[in-house]
Amino acid sequence: MGKIRSLPPDVVLKIAAGEVVERPASVAKELMENALDAGSRDIKIDIEAGGRRLIRVTDDGEGMSAEDALLALERHTTSKIASAEDLFAIHTFGFRGEALASIAAVSKMKIITRRKEDLAGFEIQIDGGMVLKSGETGSPIGTNVEVRDLFFNVPARLKFLKSPGTELGHIGEAVARLALANEQTQFQLFHEGRLLAHYPVRAEAAARLAEALGKEAGERMHRFQYHDGDMKISGYAGDPGYDRPNARAIYLFVNRRPVRDRLLYHAVLEAYRTLLPKERNPVVLLFVELPADCVDVNVHPSKGEVKFVEGEKVHRAVITGIRRMIERLPGMPAVEAPLQEVRETASGYARQPWQEAFPLKDPETSPKAWTVNVAERGGRSFLGQIQQTYLLFVSADGITLVDQHAAHERILVEKLEEQFFEKEISRQLLMIPEVLELSLSEAKSAQEHLQDLGKMGFALESAGERTFWIRGVPEVLARREPVKILKEMIHEISSWGKGTELSRSFSSLIHMLACRAAVQASQKIGYEEASSLLSTLESCTSPSRCPHGRPTVIKITVEDLAKMFGRK
Predict the structure, then answer these.
(1) Burial of 17 (0-12, 13-18, 19+ CB in 10 A)
(2) 165 lies in the same domain as 230
(3) Helix (H) or strand (E) holding 131
(4) What is the rounded CA–CA span in Å between residue 454 and residue 472?
């Protein structure tokens, strides 16, 4: 007997399900896309136990006949394509004919559907891919798909699911993405019978920015658009000060289909190059619309990846569209030139880096705001700042250059770590609490980690499904932007795996606090602060490098100077 054999049908279905159904959010996404393809204008999503126990999607679409409903449960059956040529002219979300069969293979499913022309609806009950019962039933027009006990017959998959709150957050994100791109359809998300998110029908996507991404997004995101022949680039992008520590707030759509695409991500980041600090990401809602034969969506079973026929043209168009919008914002220079090179003065010339530390002698042409402060500290003199970023000290031993941000970051990290291990990071209570409004997924992460956030110095109190009162902030952030930094911390915490303890992951949070609280590059400081900064740095346990590994101090000794000038 040979070694090669045909796999049993149930095994084939479970293998296919592994490609399509990664987690409860994958199920919700596939069912919502089916509802949109059916012309739905009202979609309701009911969730229990973060999707493990129940995912129910109810729509008011065109429904299915009894014959079509049964056939839809077979693999590679679909109403959306009929030939190979159709793969290059896809105008629907679904087309592979795998989603329902794959979901049914790893759950207990019930489908109730009815068309407008039918007097009664049709119901099917499936258990692990096997049809148990089917027949007529009472039903409104549309389709109701109920998925219970997801992965009940593949327990190994259950181990990879995170907490119910985290999984619910992913479902909320999937709903928000589709709602942003389909403003003519109403979406309602319920968990355990409570309404979590409501997206009513809107005239345009702009009205949904605040609903899906929070109030700040509605205020700080700006519309952009660009046309190149049959290709249209449009959307909303945040101003350069509105950013995130990761790329989760970059929403990409190709012909209204949510996608993950490296080329588009790169184009978005390139549009903000020189405008955002390193390791920061913009908030962008990008729609790419082009003829169906110019993009291949048949790349992966999840239908989340695409390939463009003219990728370079799309890449260039995205950059152009976003950059033109940014340049129109008040106070923004042309994006083509790095911002640090645009340093115009009242007299109309650009200041050179050396002029930041040593002013011109002519008082009529010197920038009026520039001053040199000198202080003697144990034989060490502070001469000033270079580009308001590097502190310059001289002594009998040579020259010392200090990166003010890196040095202060090192000092704060060691201070915060000491506080953290003693009890918790020192907190300053607010006389008037600030309001924190989050997306659904962010709110669930914050709720699950209130104690962890408290140990990091934030005192939060729930004030609704997506709203919190901030009653206290870390002392080091008292004069910074605590709300913005808290949001970044919640983004970081939401990426933790199930059961992750704060004691194992505190380092990244403390580094984040220190980085945001430290004196920034291009910030003017006086000689007292500069001298104190260097003295405190020298008392640190690891003074030579910042938490990211960059140097804090560069010393040029007299011997080094002699070598540079060719002296023996």
Answers:
(1) buried
(2) no
(3) strand 130-137
(4) 9
Helices (H), 393-501: 404-422, 440-448, 450-455, 482-494
Residues 359, 277, single domain; the answer is: no
The conformation of residue 50, written as its DSSP 8-state character, comes to G
The count of structural domains within the chain is: 3
Distance CA 47, CA 454 (A): 29
Single out the residue in 156, 176, 200 at which a domain terminates: 200
> What is d(CA 446, CA 358) in angstroms, rounded to the nearest whole number?
49
Is residue 456 within 8 A of residue 473, CB to CB? The reply is no
- H/E stretch holding 320: helix 311-328
179 & 219 share domain: no
What is the DSSP track for 495-548? TSPTT--HHHHHHHHHHHHHHHHSPPTT----HHHHHHHHHHHHTSSSTTB-TT
Is residue 503 included in any domain, yes or no? yes
- Cβ atoms of 255 and 294 within 8 Å: the answer is no
> DSSP of 228-258, one letter per residue?
ETTEEEEEEEE-TT-EESSGGGEEEEETTEE
DSSP string, 161-223: ---HHHHHHHHHHHHHHHHHH-TTSEEEEEETTEEEEEE---SSTHHHHHHHH-HHHHHHEEE
- Two tokens, residue 307: 């390939």
From first to last of its 568 residues, what are the pLDDT tens digits of the chain? 566 666 566 655 555 555 568 899 999 999 999 999 999 999 999 999 999 999 999 999 999 999 989 988 886 555 544 444 544 444 555 444 578 888 998 999 999 999 999 999 999 999 998 999 999 999 999 999 999 999 998 888 888 888 888 899 889 999 999 999 999 999 999 999 999 899 999 877 778 888 888 878 888 899 999 999 899 999 999 998 888 878 888 999 998 888 888 899 999 999 998 888 777 889 999 999 998 888 887 655 555 678 888 989 999 999 999 999 998 887 665 554 433 333 333 333 333 332 233 333 333 333 333 333 434 444 788 888 998 899 999 988 899 999 999 999 999 999 998 888 888 889 898 888 888 888 887 888 888 888 888 888 999 998 888 889 999 999 988 777 788 888 888 887 776 655 556 666 678 888 888 888 899 888 888 888 898 999 999 998 888 888 878 899 999 999 999 888 988 6
Q: At what angle do helices 262-271 and 311-328 cross, to 10 degrees?
A: 30
What is the C-alpha to C-alpha distance for residues 480 and 518, in angstroms, rounded to an integer?
9
